[in-house]
Amino acid sequence: MPGVGVRTAAVLLVTVGDGTSFPTAAHLASYAGLAPATKSSGTSIHGEHAPRGGNRQLKRAMFLSAFACMNADPASRTYYDRQRARGKTHTQALLRLARQRISVLFAMLRDGTFYDPRVPKDVELAA
User: Residue 22 and residue 122: Cα distance in Å, rounded?
Assistant: First the structure.
């Protein structure tokens, strides 16, 4: 997977293992602290924001992985640019990219497959 080096892979293996302890990708994202949280008090419900909890090592590894892959993976760059176009800040867009990448990582662990890059619809391939 682009953006996952030796150190990031080591953190992933130590914290996630083979992924069987997480039933869904959302559980893994919540464990990593990458799932959006809502604040509610009585009848007031405030919008989604990044949670402060979660496994700090895993969250940091996925955040740095998302930052590193932006120039190496066209699909990740397109996703980041789309989030920025929707009005998200740089950090918010990176956190969303990290959340998306953790879903891909969970699917890879669940299915026992290697990373298969997708070609985004917006990118034209050079002949």
Answer: 33
Q: Which three-class secondary structure string do you get for the chain? A: CCCCCHHHHHHHHHHHCCCCCCCCHHHHHHHHCCCCEEEEECCEEEEEECCCCCCHHHHHHHHHHHHHHCCCCHHHHHHHHHHHHCCCCHHHHHHHHHHHHHHHHHHHHHHCCCCCCCCCCCCCCCC
Mean pLDDT for the chain overall: 84
Segment 85-95, tens digit of pLDDT: 999 999 889 99
pLDDT confidence of residue 90: 92
Query: Is 60 exceeded by the pLDDT of residue 126?
Result: no
Tell whether 123 is covered by a domain.
no
Residue 38 lies in a domain: yes
Task: Kindly state whether residue 117 falls inside one of the protein's structural domains.
Answer: no
User: What is the domain range of residue 106?
Assistant: 6-111
